[in-house]
């Protein structure tokens, strides 16, 4: 295949250069906390956990469930015609639901039945995160103007950097652009002072948006691709979900456009040399060297394309603690969490499970 011929040539030219990613050390030192966490529910690809006044909701595919964590069960409350890509609770009742088709639906509350599919005349191609600070305002992350949420790998490998953040007045329909040319904004939150915090996945960082459209980097050089970010209890810091790890060979592929384009054209997407929400389920998946099993055992430090990581950030948005599912674990693809009732509830989209960690268990490093 042309791709492998070009890969060999490029690697020979690149051998004297360095491709490196940040190591998991200090506050990010690996552990097995997520694999040891209590399982609440096991089902296909749970995502978008939100705490509403009447319960905890989450999505899986095109369905939205309400969770009963006491019994370990859930019930479907809404079903849509497209996969749910993001979800937010509206103060005083209702949900804002972003779909893969680019539309945002309001179910319940003051604007029940409202559907938004564009902002300032521009179609919403890729809704990735929503928050509603009050019942008439929506803050929206559009991950990309080129690719839909289910094409996130393509957006990463082609490095489009055409994401944006908007503030929408639900009553008038007017929208204000807070930031553009972002590399896949995937999570958004407000601090108690009203600052807008955004996780920018493809640049591996957390930023805060300024009123004049500029931004300040709060945390960069993350070892993975950040997803949703939420305030910790009492706004005492934040929780950051990392949905997939960075790997040197993947960075190498992204930098070498010719090889990357050949891979996109010639290889099925699930077999790309790219991040994944889960690995080890198909013998045709690419292996990253140390991922080869020894004596039938996958080592915990194996450099898999998927990983499980949840990071606790302090008030200055610096990591102070982390919770992991390592290469040999099965709680990978952490995309969403909520901090409620003295515990964390965490969605492992790649591990097909919702798990919980009590705050008392978080007081010391697991």
Summary, kept brief:
The chain has 366 residues and is mainly beta. It is 11% helix and 41% strand.
Number of helices, where a helix is a run of at least 4 consecutive DSSP H or I residues: 5
Straight-line distance between termini: 46 Å
Overall mean pLDDT score?
A: 90
Instruction: Record the strand order, biggest sheet.
Output: 1-26-25-24
Largest sheet: 4 strands, antiparallel
Instruction: Tell me roughly what share of residues is in helical segments.
Output: 10-25%
Structural class: mainly beta
User: In total, how many beta strands?
Assistant: 26
List the uncertain runs: none
Summarize the SSE layout with pairings:
Blueprint lengths: L1 H13 L18 H4 L1 E5 L4 E6 L2 E6 L2 E6 L4 E7 L4 E6 L5 E5 L4 E4 L7 E2 L1 E2 L2 E2 L3 E8 L2 E6 L9 H7 L4 E7 L5 E8 L2 E6 L5 E5 L4 E5 L5 E5 L4 E8 L6 E8 L2 H8 L1 H10 L41 E6 L5 E7 L8 E7 L2 E6 L4 E6 L8
Antiparallel strand pairs: 1-26, 2-3, 3-4, 4-5, 6-7, 7-8, 8-9, 10-11, 12-13, 13-14, 14-15, 16-17, 17-18, 18-19, 20-21, 21-22, 22-23, 24-25, 25-26
């Amino acid at each position: 295949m042309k791709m492998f011929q070009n890969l060999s040539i490029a690697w020979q030219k690149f051998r004297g250069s360095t491709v490196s990613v940040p190591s998991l050390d200090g506050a990010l030192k690996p552990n097995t906390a997520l694999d040891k966490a209590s399982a609440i529910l096991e089902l296909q690809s749970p995502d978008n956990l939100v705490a509403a006044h009447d319960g905890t909701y989450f999505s899986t595919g095109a369905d939205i469930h309400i969770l009963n964590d006491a019994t370990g069960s859930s019930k479907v409350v809404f079903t849509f015609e497209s996969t749910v890509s993001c979800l937010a609770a509206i103060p005083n009742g209702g949900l804002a639901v972003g779909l893969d088709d680019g539309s945002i639906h309001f179910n319940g509350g003051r604007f029940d039945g409202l559907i938004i599919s564009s902002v300032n005349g521009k179609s919403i191609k890729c809704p990735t995160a929503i928050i509603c600070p009050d019942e008439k305002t929506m803050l929206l992350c559009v991950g990309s103007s080129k690719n839909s949420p289910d094409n996130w790998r393509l957006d990463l490998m082609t490095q489009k950097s055409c994401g944006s953040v908007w503030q929408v007045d639900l009553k008038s329909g007017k929208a204000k652009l807070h930031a553009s040319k972002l590399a896949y904004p995937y999570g958004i939150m407000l601090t108690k002072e009203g600052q807008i915090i955004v996780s920018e996945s493809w640049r591996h960082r957390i930023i805060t948006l300024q009123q004049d459209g500029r931004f300040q980097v709060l945390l960069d050089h993350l070892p993975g691709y950040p997803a949703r970010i939420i305030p910790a209890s009492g706004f005492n810091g934040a929780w950051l979900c990392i949905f997939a790890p960075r790997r040197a060979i993947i960075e190498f592929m992204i930098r070498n456009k010719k090889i990357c384009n050949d891979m996109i054209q010639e290889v099925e997407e699930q077999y790309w040399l790219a991040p994944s929400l889960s690995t080890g389920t198909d013998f045709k998946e690419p292996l990253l060297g140390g991922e080869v099993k020894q004596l039938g055992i996958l080592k915990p430090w194996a450099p898999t394309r998927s990983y499980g990581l949840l990071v606790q950030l302090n008030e200055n948005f610096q990591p102070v603690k982390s919770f992991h599912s390592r290469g040999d674990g099965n709680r990978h693809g952490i995309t969403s969490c909520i901090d409620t009732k003295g515990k964390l509830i965490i969605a492992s989209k790649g591990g097909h499970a919702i798990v919980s960690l009590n705050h008392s268990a978080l007081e010391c490093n697991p």
